[in-house]
Specification:
6 helices; 434 Repressor (Amino-terminal Domain); 0% strand; 65% helix; mainly alpha; 77 residues
Length: 77
Amino acid sequence: MEINNSILNSLLPEVTIAQKIYKLRVSGNYTRRNFAAICDIGYSSICKYEIGLSTPNEKNIHKITKALNIHLNYFIC
């Protein structure tokens, strides 16, 4: 059975910042390395953010929102 990506993405949780970053990356079909490069953030930082070992600082949140053209409120709400 094949699952549509949009359906799968809608089922991904987005409660924590880690989940939101993961969902943004997966929904854009980015690898962690691609996502890091697009956002101009280190690969190891992206890995830590996604697994919840670290929380991005304000500067990196702004880099992510600018690179993906999303509103800052996505991370605040």
